[in-house]
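Worked example

This section walks through a single chain of length 407. The input is the sequence exactly as stored; nothing has been trimmed or padded.
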Amino acid sequence: MNRKKDGFSFFLTFCFITFLAMQMLSPVPFASAAEDKKDLPPRKISVAPEYTGVIVPKGESVSIDLNVINGGRQDEYINVSLPSIPKGWKARVRTYSFDVTGVYVKSDSTKSLTIKAEPEEGTSPGKYTFSVKGQTQDGQLTSSSQVTVVVTEAEKEKKAKGVNISTSYPVLQGPTDAKFEFSIEVENKTDKDSIFNLIAQGPKNWEINFKPAYEEKYFSSLRIKAERSESMAVEVKPYVLAEPGQYPIKVKVKSEGAEGEVELMVVLSGTYKLDVGTPTGLLSLSAFQGEAANLSFYVKNSGSATQNEVKFLSFKPENWKVEFKPERLEAVPSGELKQVEVTITPAREALVGDYSVNLAVEGGKVTKNMELRVTVKASTAWGWVGIGIIIVVIAGLVTLFVRMGRR
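Given that input, the structure is written out below as tokens.
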């Protein structure tokens, strides 16, 4: 009988302890989840591709994962779109079996979609940028990003009659005043040593030369042993007045009984150049101690590319003030000139003399400096004080002479 009671008591005790443990442990996940939610902002979204830049051969389509992230505390309906699709391409946002324009994303969750881009027939090698946009259904939150697709020439590295030409970087991009250098490897697949003549076809007025890698001498032919390969560089200098855009360059390698060619591409973004000066050409001004002096100067975009976010900086003596109006220029298109006012205030304790104030104009990719000579003069108030002292001294002398004359 005692054993039955002991067993029953043990069973009740076990059930009670189990119940208490469940009561203590069951709220923990919910509390933890609630605490995690508190750490999130009220609303936050991000719509971004897995890869922001890819390289594909000519004619191939592109598929890139698109992550739609809800980082806020509330669930969201998010619209997705491709506002800007380059000419020569068809693109859309897809899921596994259909196109997508919007997606429902729970709080603190991510949905994966796919950006599918297909080139049209005849789309040439080059650089193409697709813009990506996500926006909540109420229009309150927006997320923007972009994908850059670089299309290379597909197997234009020809194997023609015993010659194989290859290059790792067939597309180079830069400003118009830059020098571009392509690295090319030429393989002689014939069974005899040969001298290959090198021929380049490019835009008018462009300078194209062949040279050994890491050397500054030029050549027009290349000797390659049988079943061997040689590396060389193709140096390209664009015409100084070339407009921004894409420019193909064809390189041919030819010998007796063997011939091959490869197509390269130079993408020009334009030149970046700023001119800074004053309308009169003078780079000096006078100022009084503690008093502001004004000077007008101009900023001219002499390059072929627009200068964005032009800022002004100054390097001045201690306790001086230099202010610009406007404080910055949002954009200066090619060939345009903008006028800027600068106010220079010497320190009150500045000594009379000449000082140097350097002004720096910073564009997106270029900086121009202008040095001003500022002549500091004594304050006009002290001039009047000096005149007053002279008048008092003269008056005193006159009075003295008059009194002495009476005696």
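What to look for: The chain has a mean pLDDT of 84.
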